[in-house]
Write a structure and sequence with these properties.
With 257 residues, the chain is α/β, with parallel strands linked by helices. It has 9 helices and 12 strands. It has a single domain, classed as Glutaconate Coenzyme A-transferase. Pfam families: CoA_trans.
Amino acid sequence: MSAASGTSAATRAEICVVACAEAWRGDGEVLAAAMGTCSILGARLARHTFEPGLLTTDGGALLTAEPVAFGAPAGAVEGWLPFRDHLWLVQNGRRHVMMGASQIDRHGNTNISAIGDWARPKSQLLGVRGAPGNTIANPTSYWIPRHSTRVFVPQVDMVSGVGFDRAAALGPGASRFHGLRRVVTDLAVLDFGTPDRSMRLVSVHPGVEVQRVVTATGFELVIEGDVPETRRPAEEELRLIREVLDPKALRDQEVRA
């Protein structure tokens, strides 16, 4: 079976791209925003396949008529999305964003601002950016290319993105639009489908043992029975990833085999 056509030959990065794409399944006509190579490829793959109604951009303010290759010019453009219009989509729940996180806890609170005491941090990061508004106002997922106890922590050093526990504490005015969908990493797929909205292990990627994910997580994961394997890409998905969306294989620089 050739590398170009066999699903068994899919790399870990390609597994991750498909897992990211699955986060947008069922979304319909919303803006798919993503941060990170595999998550951007995932959004564009979803539009190419099972979610043709998704809106995707060139990485900037142009809505592309077709999903374009990673880093390529927009090509045919079907709309312009200035920042004010982008924010309208956020505030009205018409965007599903897949962000990154330097830290994330069991309820989905995330930190992209600073590591250590906020008054005198060890490391200054991006700042909270749009994370509070994203997590309160529109569906949010996460793509984390390095699953480790440095990222999956018992308590984040500063809350940038709002988790389920904090959204509930803020009351219905905040929590009614709050929704964290999926967390995709280089090892596994996780969600918050538990009664107390704590993180649950949904699947492990091919070749990854459940115990490896448990060891790489700094809090107790919810594990329900036998954990299935993350689905492998179909042949057409592999072709789209390799030949159309990422012919330079930049995905393999983010997630190495």
